[in-house]
Specification:
CATH superfamily of the largest domain: Alkaline Phosphatase, subunit A
Strand content: 15-25%
Shape: globular
Number of strands: 20
Distance between the termini: 45 Å
Number of domains: 2
Largest sheet: 9 strands, mixed
Radius of gyration: 22 Å
CATH architecture of the largest domain: 3-Layer(aba) Sandwich
Structural class: alpha/beta
């Protein structure tokens, strides 16, 4: 069986009709949902972008050990594991984080890859753009440091075929038509859309709003919508949501070309198709915009997952609770490949759920940011807990010192002024024979009191932490046992205010 694995970045499930939306047009995602299985309780684990991708590609729950980094030497990626079984792999993406300093090596195990350049902060073009285009004037005023990179990159983009998700999905359709091998294949398609900037051409720019696009910036600053640089008026927030919806619809239209190609080439009969995202995106939800270090509400962590495989019960919904880390072992099992023997593969295959042999997978799910907020969900209840930096220091654990660039901004500093942090090397990750660096982390994440939401509050609007201490204790115990099972660094018990070790 072949594998087509599609990721749309920052895809908020509330903008998809297959998850209840009634105003955004996504006929091709709807088409895939009608053909395959829609998962109603799928959650991201490690946040944000690259931690989530390491989960997808290796089954490792990353956020306990590090913030953002490359693949580690002990990782056995999906491409590597399938390649050992004779599967040819290809990556098609405009997600420039794969190729950056400090998040490299993700493409190494693929037999080939196509990189579509120029999205967001991708340093692609250097030519000056002269007078700012009318759509970008407010953007350049609001983001004078990073916006010029994007504006330079998209000079000369007039039609939708010039934009990023159209180019990614067009390349995907061409590969399926003319470049796929005769034997089994794995094609990983990672579109950065609908990630910001929410810059779209017509007809998508005015599809969901009548407001003048020249009044606002399509690239809001992360944070509270009522504070500082991230502040947005109700009118501007409505416009931003409309541009995001336009991006979703544009990506969906070009995804349709891929689905059409599967039809034309008769590939559905021997291909498994997965469509998901790394995380959601705040668009005014709970007073936030972006994916900042906010509490990990379901807006961010409760994500879409659609799967087709030959013989599945079309148009069905799955109520089992699953996580991103589970996709790695599930795909390997479905394609008949063994799971690598590693204590850092934390996911569990939900193949029995896919085959209709079970309707239960996980009793609880956990999502979190390295050094920051954690969400624990069980029996309809959700506990949101922040780490307390005053209780214990924070360290990153990694084999690759390029993470220093993220933590300490090594390359951006005057080399003469830069002070190397106190590094230690040792066997700090349980079950791993390879020594890693232990790097002190100087970030200080925001804090918040415990937040608790009950089963009758899916929008997570009513905090019940003060009313139901017994549920706080129950979810805290689930978190503690999970940390014991993962062998997480000991300092995290103090930071998360749970008792360390076994009960």
């Amino acid at each position: 069986m072949n594998l087509l694995y599609i990721t749309l970045d920052s895809l908020n499930r509330h903008f998809l009709p297959c998850y209840g939306n009634d105003w955004v047009q996504t006929p091709n995602i709807d088409r895939l949902a009608a053909k395959g299985v829609t998962f109603d309780h799928h959650y991201s684990g490690s946040l944000p972008c690259m931690p989530a991708r390491r989960e997808m590609w290796t089954g490792t729950e990353e956020f306990w050990w590090r913030w953002w980094g490359p693949l580690e030497p002990w990782d056995r990626t999906l491409a590597h594991a399938l390649g050992c079984g004779g599967v040819t792999s290809q990556l098609i993406t405009d997600h420039y984080h794969y190729f950056e300093w400090g998040a490299h090596s993700f493409e190494y195990d693929f037999d080939g890859y196509t990189s579509v350049r120029g999205h967001e902060h991708d340093n692609h073009r250097t030519r000056p753009f002269g007078e700012a285009p009318d759509w970008a004037r407010v953007l350049l005023e609001r983001r004078p440091t990073d916006a010029p990179i994007y504006v330079r990159n998209v000079q000369g983009y007039w039609g939708e075929e010039d934009f990023f998700s159209p180019r990614v999905f067009d390349a995907t359709a061409r590969w399926l038509r003319s470049e796929r091998p005769a034997g089994p294949w794995y094609l990983h398609v990672d579109a950065f859309d609908p990630h910001e900037p929410f810059h779209v051409p017509e007809p998508y720019r005015s599809m969901y709003t009548d407001d003048d696009y020249r009044r606002y910036s399509p690239w809001p600053v992360y944070g509270r919508v009522d504070q500082g640089a991230s502040a947005l008026s109700p009118e501007e927030l409505a416009w931003v949501r409309a541009q995001y919806a336009g991006k979703v619809t544009m990506a969906d239209r070009w995804l349709g070309r891929v689905l059409d190609t599967l039809d034309e080439r008769g590939l559905w009969d021997d291909t498994m198709v997965v469509l998901t995202t790394d995380h959601g995106h705040y668009l005014g939800d709970h007073g936030w915009v972006g994916k900042p270090q906010s509490p990990v509400y379901d807006t961010l962590a409760h994500i879409p997952l659609l799967i087709w495989w030959p013989g599945c019960a079309s148009g069905t919904r799955c109520g089992a609770h699953t996580q991103t880390i589970d996709l790695y072992p599930t795909v390997l099992e479905m394609l008949g490949q063994p799971l690598p023997d590693s204590p850092l593969v934390h996911g569990r295959s939900f193949e029995p759920v896919l085959r209709g042999e079970s309707d239960v997978h996980r009793d609880y799910t956990i999502s979190g940011y390295y050094g920051g907020r954690v969400a624990v969900r069980s029996e309809g209840w959700t506990l949101l807990r922040a780490q307390d930096p005053s209780r214990a220091p924070l360290f990153e654990y990694t084999h690759d010192l390029q993470v220093l660039d993220r933590s300490w901004a090594c390359r951006r500093r005057d080399p003469a002024a830069f002070v190397v942090p106190d590094l230690e090397a040792g066997r700090f990750i349980s079950g791993l024979d390879m020594p890693v660096w232990r790097i002190p982390e100087r970030r200080r994440w925001g804090d918040h009191p415990d937040l608790l939401f009950g089963p009758d509050d899916p929008a997570q609007e009513r905090d019940l932490a003060g009313d139901h201490p017994e549920q706080v204790r129950r979810l805290e115990e689930i978190l503690r046992q999970h940390m014991v099972d993962r062998n997480v660094p000991h300092e995290l018990y103090a930071r998360l205010r749970v008792n360390g070790g076994v009960a």
